[in-house]
């Protein structure tokens, strides 16, 4: 892969990959572990439950790497948004806490955009990034537990 290239797909829960500055490949699979009540579970600090799938996918996508062992995997909670799109905002008009949430398992693609939005917000700029419709905070809320968890 050429330096700086990210390959992504607009479908939900697909594979994604990106080259690292040291020439390796970061390969991932959309879909995360959901926890009842938004709890932080011990599984979030363990290797990915998709480790075997990722090893097989590496061989499928890059046959020359079929015998290359996956160096590390990780898992984490999902920050799914109601719209499936990320959203950004500021905790209060006079505060210095800015946020970006709701990448919905698709952070590799939109993280550059999110960085531009947050950097512009922190600098107090009025530009296309800060005027984005994504700078409105959450655009809705999930139903309460247990419906939220069952739906995930």
From TrEMBL:
Domain FAD dependent oxidoreductase residue range list: 9-120
Keyword tRNA processing recorded: no
Oxidoreductase recorded as keyword: yes
Domain of life from the UniProt record: Bacteria
InterPro entries: FAD-dep_OxRdtase (IPR006076), FAD/NAD-bd_sf (IPR036188)
Keywords: Oxidoreductase
Molecular function, one GO term: oxidoreductase activity
Protein's name according to its UniProt entry: FAD-dependent oxidoreductase
Species name: Pseudomonas jessenii
């Amino acid at each position: 892969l050429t330096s700086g290239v990210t390959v992504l797909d607009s479908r939900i829960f697909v594979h994604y990959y990106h080259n690292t500055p040291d020439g390796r490949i970061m390969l991932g699979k959309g879909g995360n572990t959901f926890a009842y009540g938004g709890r932080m579970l011990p599984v979030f600090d363990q290797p990915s439950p998709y480790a075997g799938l990722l090893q097989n996918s590496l061989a499928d996508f890059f046959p020359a790497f079929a015998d290359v062992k996956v160096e590390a995997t990780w898992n984490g909670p999902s920050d799914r948004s109601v719209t499936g799109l990320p959203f950004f905002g500021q905790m209060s008009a006079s505060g210095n806490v800015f946020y970006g949430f709701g990448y919905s398992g698709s952070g590799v693609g939109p993280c550059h955009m999110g960085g531009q939005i947050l950097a512009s917000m922190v600098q107090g700029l009025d530009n296309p990034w800060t005027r984005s419709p994504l700078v409105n905070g959450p655009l809705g809320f999930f139903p309460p537990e247990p419906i939220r968890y069952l739906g995930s």
